[in-house]
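Async update (no meeting this week)

Hi team, since we skipped the sync, here's where things stand on the single-chain job. The sequence we agreed to prioritize is pasted below, unchanged from the tracker. I ran it this morning and attached the output directly underneath so nobody has to dig for it. Comments welcome in thread, and please keep replies under the output.
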Amino acid sequence: MSANLRTEISADMNNITLSVSALLLDMDGTLVCSTGDVEQVWRIWCREHQLDPEPVLAMCHGMRSREVIRALAPQLDVEREAARLDELEMEHTGGDAIAGAGELLRRLPPERWAIVTSASERVARHRLSCAGLPLPNLLVGAEAVSNGKPDPEPYLLGAKRLGGSPARCLVFEDALAGIESALRAGCTVVQVGGEEPLNPAVVAVIRDWREVKVELGEGESLLVTLPA
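Output:
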């Protein structure tokens, strides 16, 4: 557990409970089952440019399109290609919500959670709506930052806009780039999906949101119970 939190309070051997001020949530693969949509978009884009999709697919999860293009296709116009990928994402969105996500989000105080995503704000709002999930009061999208995940800037900005300290924010992420971004920002991280933690600093791994319980604690705290 992050030394910044020091908030494990449950004596139950099967669970841990953390006291935090806010939740910062990734979207793709964390709230929405959109991994297939994301890969389909990148495959289409790679075909358009006669690029091998495998290196792109190995890198793209959890990262902004700009960083992927700069790294693997620097000969292309980054902003133009990012806009093209945005259009493809709007056309190829059909993922369902990850089990339990909608129920949990609707119970949270709206000022206590935000979405921090590598998708553009337009794509994120469209994808959340298609999945039947509530839209957040605060959404940090790709265009809000100069440096995307795994840089800490997205999660630092999310915490700042919620008015809290990163050390008191609990992040839910599915991709290594996002996990590293959150850890570098000083947040505590829960991994969504997978059999093993992608980083040893992850405090818990959940299969879906049905394994998460959130209650209001004393003052402005949220008590988040997770499988140990």
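Quick observations from my side:
The first strand starts at residue 15 and ends at 20.
Strands lie at 15-20, 22-25, 113-116, 139-140, 169-173, 188-192, 204-206, 213-216, 222-227.
Reply here if anything looks off.
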